[in-house]
Design brief:
Length: about 375
């Protein structure tokens, strides 16, 4: 029986139909470039990008994979060379097939296409950012930018890839396969386009105590827990913006914010809540008011309704509380609110959810 050379690993001898030299020449004729990049965010979820002198666009840390070098080791080397930081890179986020047509490289470059790996560089705090020492001959500056700003700062393909990798990190489903920055099998975060518009920015202090007398309540949102420890999140289909169930108090609510969120959850998401627990409030210094936060158990959801306030049907998903925080820009106060959320979860006898892919609730569901 004769086997084909294409069925063998590169280390195996060539078949009777093709010599080693012929097989090597065939594979070399189809060779593509290999590149690597590293996605790093700060504690607010902003993405680190580099300004370089040889391109008009911002770049993620990274570069070409050298001969005989793995993509992971190249990522480690590039971060060390460009930022002066020793980083142990072990988690992949995306593998992108970058076509010659998408790049528009000059003919003399003879660009054959590229396999570009994106690795997770983690969430950096102030100490690690302070340790950055830029490669003076290559990197002019670094900055952390809102994910929604990436398309204006990066080349189109680089921005698509960075956003897809960031969604993959939030989703936790593993390495996503891309073609010219577009997921081959898009998840719900990709389909809705989460992070393509600026995240809700509420850098307001969180107070785990009752609202002071005389302070008007402008908003009531709820962390609605499913039995597996994940919570309900609403995604705006036109913008990808996220929000928790709830809304603005109305006269028919009788001045009770808990009544507001139960009503709003039913209107926005056809969600039925129970066991409502008060968490605390955010104080808005720009407008003297309170934005109250609750936790509750999620008993059931019906068919996706059209929200009377917007005329649109939200995309409803379940996500862990930690994933939820990554969809917003809440600043340092997010940590205190998250602690209150988990205290309430424990009091409701709901388990802590392990990180898992975000799940869409496309139809009725009961628990």
């Amino acid at each position: 029986m004769t086997t084909n050379a294409a069925d063998q690993s590169p280390a195996q001898p060539s078949t009777s139909k093709m010599t080693d030299e012929q097989y090597g020449a065939l594979r070399a004729s189809a060779a593509v470039w290999a590149g690597t990049s590293v996605l790093i965010t700060d504690e607010r979820g902003r993405v680190l990008v580099q300004e370089v002198g040889y391109r008009p666009f911002r770049l993620l840390p990274g570069g070409a994979v050298d001969e005989g070098e793995s993509a992971r080791r190249a990522a480690v080397r590039e971060v060390q060379e460009e930022l002066g930081v020793a980083l142990d890179v072990r988690r992949g986020l995306a593998v992108d097939w970058v076509s010659a047509a998408a790049v528009g490289a000059p003919a003399e470059m003879r660009f054959p296409g590229e396999i570009l790996h994106v690795f997770d560089g983690g969430i950096w705090g102030e100490e690690r950012f302070a340790a950055i020492r830029l490669a003076a001959d290559e990197i002019q500056a670094v900055e952390c930018v809102e994910p929604a700003d990436l398309p204006a700062l990066m080349s189109p393909g680089d921005a698509r890839r960075a956003l897809a990798a960031l969604r993959a990190r939030i989703d936790g489903a593993g390495v996503v396969l891309l073609e010219d920055g577009v997921p081959v099998t898009p998840g719900v975060l990709d389909r809705v386009g989460v992070l393509r518009t600026a995240r809700a920015r509420h850098h307001f202090p969180f107070h785990p105590r009752p609202v002071p007398g005389g302070l008007v309540v402008r908003q009531a949102w709820c962390w609605a827990f499913a039995p597996d420890g994940r919570v309900l999140v609403l995604l705006e289909p036109d913008t990808g913006a996220a929000c928790l169930p709830g809304g603005t108090p109305e006269g028919r609510d009788g001045g009770d914010p808990a009544t507001t969120l139960v009503r709003e959850a039913r209107e926005e998401a056809a969600a039925e809540l129970a066991d409502v627990v008060y968490l605390g409030h955010l104080s808005d210094p720009e407008e003297p008011c309170a934005r109250v936060r609750y936790a509750a158990t999620l008993r059931r959801v019906g068919a996706p309704p059209v929200d009377p306030a917007t005329g649109r049907a939200y995309v409803r998903v379940l996500a862990t509380p930690e994933q939820v925080v990554e969809l917003f820009d809440w600043g340092p106060a997010a940590a205190g609110q998250l602690q209150a959320v988990h205290r309430a979860r424990a009091s409701l006898r709901i388990p802590r959810a392990a990180r898992r892919p975000v799940t869409e609730l496309s139809g009725p569901c009961a628990w």
